[in-house]
Amino acid sequence: MHPQVENSLHFIKDRWWDEDRHYTEGSAKGLTLATLRNAAVSILRVVPGFPDEEPIRARADQLNWDCARAITILTNSIT
């Protein structure tokens, strides 16, 4: 199972979000950005209102184009 998880995360973060080209000065900033990306992937996996078979990139694109929906989903899931 580990290779499947590793490959899926690598594909999402590196191929779709081009993570390897982004760099920061200082390890704390890089760790913070990596943590935010991991949190974004986790949220996109469990966010309600999307079909289970819909790819994470499609979910991210939809929420990127509809910011009001993204804010509604995030505020409703926090409370």
Describe the protein's architecture and organization.
With about 80 residues, the chain is mainly α. The protein is about 70% helix and about 0% strand. The protein has 4 helices and no strands. The chain has helices spanning about 1-15, 25-45, 55-65, 65-79. The longest helix has 20 residues, at about 25-45. It starts with a helix and ends with a helix. The model has no long low-confidence stretch (mean pLDDT about 75).
Query: What is the strand tally?
Result: 0
Shape: globular
In round numbers, the mean pLDDT is 76
Give the percentage of residues in beta strands. under 5%
- Binned, the helix content reads over 70%
Rg over C-alpha atoms, rounded to the nearest angstrom: 14 Å
Characterize the largest beta sheet: strand count, sense, and whether it forms a barrel: none
> What are the low-pLDDT stretches, counting only 5+ consecutive residues below 50?
none
Terminus-to-terminus distance:
33 Å
Oligomeric grouping of the chains: single chain
Based on secondary structure, the structural category is mainly alpha
Helix count equals 4
Tell me the count of domains.
1
Order of helices and strands: HHHH
